Amino acid sequence: MESIDGKIRVVVADDSKTALLSICDYLEFTGQFEIVGTANDGLHAIQQTESFRPELVLADLCMPRMTGLEAAAQLRKSYPELRILIFTELRGQAVQEECLRCGIDGFVEKNQMPERLMEEVYRLFPRIRGGMERASNAGVPATSEHLPREGDQSGEVKGRESNAD
Amino acid sequence: MPTKKILLVDDSCTARLVNRMIFSQKTNYVLVSAVDGKEAVERAREEQPDLILMDIVMPRMTGLEACRVLKKDKATEKIPVILLTTRGEEQYVQEGYASGCSDYLTKPVNDAELLDLLKAYLGE
């Protein structure tokens, strides 16, 4: 269900409170999201989705009790119209392919956030692109072209992602 | 003025994510990252960042060791290094500066304070 003001209604899930807060802060900063729920595991994300019927679920892959991927697979069956983006600190083609096999709409490495996340959001929600460009013209560094990018002057990022937290 | 490049070094994915999210909102710095001191040295040589923001306690090579290596290398000796750590005791601070760092910040770091410090090194 779209927000009255056109914002994307989103549920965000991450078992790290610090990461969750940071992501929510950023989403609010863009002015394009209404955060209707937050969750700290996959099961909680499903409950929040059932309660608030967002347009988008943004979930960490690795979470206790139920992973983001397991939650995504269940949500996909119940809510075919729901958009689901998974983010993770894990890297590699195999992980990405597994996510896409489960029916998610996009996959973002944490090391490429927020710019890659916003590119995926633009792809899934073309209606917000215009709003973001207007914001950028007003001086707000909101479009992905203006965001700091991981290694965008050097091609492929070489850094591995640690599991440390 | 060309965009400034910062090398973020931390073994915590969350710490790197938080910094990326903050910098995305407040700056237009280009960000590259490394997950330990050893990788930081490699990336600093390759990327020639304008500044390095580095945690101290990391696997493989600590931030202190990495800072010492960077300062001995002509290719990286002039890059300012800001060390970030939870260890605020005097002996650790002294050890940090002895490694050749330009600044030493104790976590948790206030976002505004950090951004002001970066601005002082990198300009507007």
Brief sketch in words of this structure:
The complex is a heterodimer of chains A (165) and B (124). Chain A has helices at residues 17-30, 42-52, 68-78, 93-101, 115-124, 127-137, and strands at 8-13, 33-39, 56-60, 83-88, 106-109.
Layout of SSEs?
The complex is a heterodimer of chains A (165) and B (124).
Chain A: E1 8-13, H1 17-30, E2 33-39, H2 42-52, E3 56-60, H3 68-78, E4 83-88, H4 93-101, E5 106-109, H5 115-124, H6 127-137
Parallel strand pairs in A: 1-2, 1-3, 3-4, 4-5
Helix pairs in contact in A: 2-3
Chain B: E1 5-9, H1 13-26, E2 30-34, H2 37-47, E3 51-55, H3 63-72, E4 81-85, H4 90-98, E5 103-106, H5 111-122
Parallel strand pairs in B: 1-2, 1-3, 3-4, 4-5
Helix pairs in contact in B: 2-3
Strand proportion of chain A, as a percent range, falls in: 15-25%
Strand content of chain B: 15-25%
Helical stretch count of chain A? 6
Largest sheet of chain A: 5 strands, parallel
Spatial strand order of the main sheet of chain A = 2-1-3-4-5
- Oligomeric state of this protein: heterodimer
| Count of all domains of chain B | 1
Would you identify the regions of chain A where 5 or more consecutive residues have pLDDT less than 50? 137-165
Q: Name the poorly predicted regions of chain B.
A: none
CATH architecture of chain B: 3-Layer(aba) Sandwich
What is the spatial order of strands in the main beta sheet of chain B? 2-1-3-4-5
The interface involving the most residues is between:
A-B, 33 and 30 residues
Mean model confidence by pLDDT of chain A: 79
Alpha carbon gap, first and last residue of chain A:
34 Å
Number of strands of chain A: 5
CATH class identity of chain B: Alpha Beta
